[in-house]
């Protein structure tokens, strides 16, 4: 028991010291000791350990207030990296981040969605390029996290079903084990929820993320952890039914929420009433920004339905924060009031003061969430 407590204290001290080093550019051991109220001996032991791992380094002598010179140390932010890889129906997106969670490199490759094997080839080529460019090895690279728009078996790194990528029961992790670093496969909405939660973790314990891209997903963070469900299938918000015998959904069923609220459905709705058809969500965005009345009307009707979906979520889980984001980000900027109105219109059980519906900071939160997960784990667990 004493042993457990001892290692727990050691872990907490180390975490606190790294936390402070992440905030400061340069700092002396004495200042660390003073600020964190940890004995100088403990600070020194930890710093020696962190130096041997290449995590901190000496920088220069600093004139301390007492006139004595002291060596300042700093975090070597480029001693560890991690990589996020997002598989989307049109792009492969890769981000490399360092220990300070700064984005060091970003790669974006457009593809024709000709099947998962073709995507694997593109990813392998580009990962190998990054690994070579930054001289990453199994010590420097903490892990690679794949973001997938579909259900996954997180434990085993398997894509269970991602119809947007035409992939079913596909072991993605297995294909990258040769890189000899930890490989994780997670759902896009989970990773977005994780990222948005990291940005608010001092204020919140729970957060829901409604992801609107080619599909409609939901990421659930409960007590600071991603909730995956007993069968890895939680958060399939897109496929709850909102209409009996309604619109056909890409999953094969009818009347799913996604059939009315994905980015695709927004374009379809516009094309149904417009004289000239559009084939890209950016064309819709352009029309909306220019004040096209039809585009505004279609978007407002769409938000009415999305609000119903969000209202259902609030009824079931009673969260204090729901973040909405994805490819819809730019369109939602001026329309959050309308979305909130729709979500609370027929809800006599709770109101806006209890649950804040917010717009995501970035439309690609999933990529940042993926890239940051191994770093966060490294900073937390060690
Ligand atoms: Zn469906």
UniProtKB/TrEMBL annotation:
<dbReference type="InterPro" id="IPR036388">
    <property type="entry name" value="WH-like_DNA-bd_sf"/>
</dbReference>
<protein>
    <submittedName>
        <fullName>ArsR family transcriptional regulator</fullName>
    </submittedName>
</protein>
<dbReference type="InterPro" id="IPR049874">
    <property type="entry name" value="ROK_cs"/>
</dbReference>
<dbReference type="Pfam" id="PF13412">
    <property type="entry name" value="HTH_24"/>
</dbReference>
<keyword id="KW-0119">Carbohydrate metabolism</keyword>
<dbReference type="GO" id="GO:0042732">
    <property type="term" value="P:D-xylose metabolic process"/>
</dbReference>
<dbReference type="InterPro" id="IPR000600">
    <property type="entry name" value="ROK"/>
</dbReference>
<comment type="function">
    <text>Transcriptional repressor of xylose-utilizing enzymes.</text>
</comment>
<dbReference type="InterPro" id="IPR036390">
    <property type="entry name" value="WH_DNA-bd_sf"/>
</dbReference>
<comment type="similarity">
    <text>Belongs to the ROK (NagC/XylR) family.</text>
</comment>
<dbReference type="Pfam" id="PF00480">
    <property type="entry name" value="ROK"/>
</dbReference>
<dbReference type="InterPro" id="IPR043129">
    <property type="entry name" value="ATPase_NBD"/>
</dbReference>
<dbReference type="InterPro" id="IPR011991">
    <property type="entry name" value="ArsR-like_HTH"/>
</dbReference>
<keyword id="KW-0859">Xylose metabolism</keyword>
């Amino acid at each position: 028991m004493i042993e457990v407590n001892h290692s727990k204290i050691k872990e907490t001290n180390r975490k606190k010291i790294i936390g402070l080093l992440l905030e400061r550019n340069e700092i002396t051991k004495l200042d660390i000791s003073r600020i964190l109220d940890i004995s100088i001996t403990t600070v020194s032991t930890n710093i020696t350990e962190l130096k041997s791992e290449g995590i901190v380094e000496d920088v220069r002598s600093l004139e301390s207030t007492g006139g004595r010179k002291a060596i300042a140390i700093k975090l070597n932010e480029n001693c560890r990296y991690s990589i996020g890889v997002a598989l989307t129906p049109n792009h492969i997106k890769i981000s490399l981040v360092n220990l300070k969670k700064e984005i060091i490199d970003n790669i974006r490759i457009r593809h024709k969605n000709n099947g998962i094997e073709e995507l694997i080839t593109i990813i392998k080529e580009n990962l190998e390029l990054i690994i070579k460019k930054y001289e990453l090895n199994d010590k420097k690279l903490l892990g690679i996290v794949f973001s997938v728009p579909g259900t996954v078996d997180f434990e085993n790194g398997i894509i269970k079903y991602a119809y947007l990528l035409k992939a079913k029961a596909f072991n993605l992790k297995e294909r990258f084990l040769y890189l000899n670093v930890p490989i994780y496969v997670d759902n896009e909405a989970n990773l977005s929820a994780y990222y948005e939660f990291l940005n608010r973790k001092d204020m919140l314990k729970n957060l829901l993320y409604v992801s609107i891209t080619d599909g409609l997903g939901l990421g659930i963070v409960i007590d600071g952890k991603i909730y995956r469900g007993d069968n890895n299938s939680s958060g399939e918000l897109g496929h709850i039914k909102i209409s009996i015998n309604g619109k056909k959904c890409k999953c094969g069923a009818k009347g799913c929420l996604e059939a009315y609220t994905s980015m695709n459905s927004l374009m379809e709705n516009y094309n149904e009433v417009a004289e000239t058809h559009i084939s890209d969500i950016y064309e819709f965005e352009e029309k909306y920004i220019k004040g096209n009345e039809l585009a505004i009307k279609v978007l407002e009707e769409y938000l009415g339905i999305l609000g119903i979906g969000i209202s259902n979520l609030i009824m079931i889980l009673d969260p204090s924060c729901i973040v909405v984001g994805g490819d819809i980000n730019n369109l939602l900027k001026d329309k959050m009031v309308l979305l909130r109105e729709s979500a609370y219109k027929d809800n006599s059980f709770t109101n806006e003061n209890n649950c804040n519906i917010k717009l995501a900071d970035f439309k690609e939160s999933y990529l940042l969430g993926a890239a940051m997960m191994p770093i966060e784990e490294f900073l937390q667990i060690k």
